[in-house]
């Protein structure tokens, strides 16, 4: 896939995604976050709709209508009692509905959407029909919470994505085999990672106008640094490799595998109520102004004696 600007990049990527969706119309694009104990705790569910925003604004005025019609329809689709879904908020600008599934029925929803329930295909069809009856198509469904404590105002769920491996089922996430030309540099699929969108532009046109021709790069860091970086940007250093002391610089890499090294993306864990330990890492996906790139050099992790034999990233 090749593109000369961000708009072409988005369009070509959407074409790939649509091919994946069309390969199995029975399934829905599902992004799984931190799903704790859906049988004993409320399950957060975020539904992004492809619908007319004017209609969404009209509906958002009366949340009770959505609770009664859309929520009840989803309950029927999932085969759970009609009072077990609560509408928490409606983002009419982004066509996003935030809901909660009351316990113990969260597990029914997870199993239906992840395809582990015996009647999962039928349930997914019912969910699609419910949304169509609401005059909307499902763009994506996000289950659970993000593993970081970040203010909601900083996040934009429209751009949440799950990236698959080459041999994964196409419905398990997005994948492209050939690098995408982004600003003249290759952008490889970050397989195995889940992206949580950050609020930087009101829509894709504004994003393209500002950063459409910039490079894609990554920056690994500790989880506790997330909110600081989102509110104030990367901290500029005046010491480090490749430049003399006193010269301002920030380090990024086109390789998510490199930035995912524990030296940078330091792992942290969370323990569920039943004692299950889950590990997380954080890597920021950035856009880099080509004019600000003053030096491109090799990695700094591998000793010189191993540089010719050790490969960090096959790409």
UniProtKB/TrEMBL annotation:
It comes from Rotaria sordida. This is Uncharacterized protein. It comes from the Eukaryota.
